[in-house]
Amino acid sequence: MSHKHLPGEERRELTVETVIALAAEQNPSDITTAAIARRMGLTQGALFRHFPNKDAILQAVMEWVAERLMARVEQATAAAPSPLAALEAVFLTHVDFVARHPGVPRMLFGELQRAGESAPKQLARTLVQHYGEHLQRIIATGRQQGELRAEIDPDAAVLLFIGTIQGLVMQSLLAGQLENLRRDAPRVFALYRRAIGSQL
Amino acid sequence: MSHKHLPGEERRELTVETVIALAAEQNPSDITTAAIARRMGLTQGALFRHFPNKDAILQAVMEWVAERLMARVEQATAAAPSPLAALEAVFLTHVDFVARHPGVPRMLFGELQRAGESAPKQLARTLVQHYGEHLQRIIATGRQQGELRAEIDPDAAVLLFIGTIQGLVMQSLLAGQLENLRRDAPRVFALYRRAIGSQL
DNA sequence: AAAGTAAGTAATCGATTACTTACTTTAAAG
DNA sequence: CTTTAAAGTAAGTAATCGATTACTTACTTT
Question: The whole model's pTM is what?
């Protein structure tokens, strides 16, 4: 084994991507440090040159996800001409992100399920929280502009939005096919639009 | 330790309920046979007098869930006067079931995430499959009777239904409060009804 | 009362886990 | 070139996992 040495920051990034790739194939809580190292072509101990412990690895993963996902979502929102268009753009952007990184929702949900109060769990929780607040702002302006029904419950609308994506993820989890995600996304959003939109 | 001996079938039932109770508190894949036995007031080895291995325990749990959940769902369907009323009854029945047994959705999702092709995973998959087919039948008759819009995509409607419940579960997972489930359920279903119903 | 059986215990097994230690290699600066 | 700190290896560690063992208890049947 004569692998090239890489600078630490680059190795950390590769580690995060490896964990996400592994999470797409198996239960996130079953991902061992040995499996991560093997996939990277390293020995298990080498990981601890860059991370103090396993939780720090998971924490880096959650930070990676939070940055990338929220950045894309906010970008999609800014480029949309109206609140309803923004919701659709965020929806499709999110689905596209999940299709590219199928391990991400599994890691997120896996972290939220954990018992204690670990750092990665905390990050997962704030990510979902920020995501929900972002959606709520879009919905609020949509109601003011009359594009969305005034009678809708904003909290329920946010919940339905996130739940809808979760349903898509679960469906692809059952079929094991990622193509279904992008294919079904527009059809499902059409239903969601009907639920909240003011026009018929 | 002088615990009374129980007949096997009763012990198996208690084991299942214990696992579900534990799943409400921690990550299902972190539930050890030692933890199950401790909660039951038994030694770890005693479990293997009733189950050949750990997977058999999880399999019994999935069978328990499949029987109880589908039975209630079908009962709620039969008692409903119309397809739309049936969907609402199934929705609230499902939410009530989850509120009573918070560990159930976590176990289900946990099993679906597993890598290989274990028996409990197979059971979880067929349960979701049967559930979806049941919903699809309700939706089909609803479309025929004109209570639901003819233009809706049945697959998308089923996906949205299940995803909505998942969203509720995730929300209570974040807040850690079960009361929210029953409180939010009607509001969220009101949105869902708007998405698929023919009347305004 | 004797024999049989199901259900329990306590101890231990090999395998696997996250993490540590001692040593070696690489790469880049002086 | 030489030096040196970061990066990687190989071989450990203690702890924990599911599962098995030999044995005991409680209850039923003959």
Answer: 0.91
The set of strand D positions with any atom below 7 Å of a protein CB reads 6-12, 16-22, 25-27
Find where tokens 């599994």 sit. A106
Does the nearest atom of strand C lie within 7 Å of A4's Cβ? yes
Tell me the pLDDT tens digit for each residue of A19-63. 999 999 999 999 999 999 999 999 998 999 999 999 999 999 999
Q: What angle do CA B76, B164, A121 make, to 5 degrees?
A: 125
Residue B128: closest CA among chain A residues belongs to which residue?
A174
Chain CA centroid to CA B148, Å: 26
Question: What's the Cα-to-Cα distance from A164 to each of A68, A93, A133, B141, rounded to whole Å?
Answer: 21, 14, 17, 23
Nearest protein residue to the C1' atom of C17, measured from CA: A32
Between residues B2 and B60, the one the model is more confident about: B60
Rounded Cα–Cα distance for residues A99 and A103 (Å): 9
Q: How far apart are CA A99 and CA A80, in angstroms?
A: 21
B195 CB near a chain A CB, below 8 Å? yes
Distance from CA of B32 to the nearest CA of A (A): 14
- Rounded distance in angstroms from the CA atom of residue B118 to the C1' atom of nucleotide C14: 23
Per DSSP, the three-state class of B197 is strand
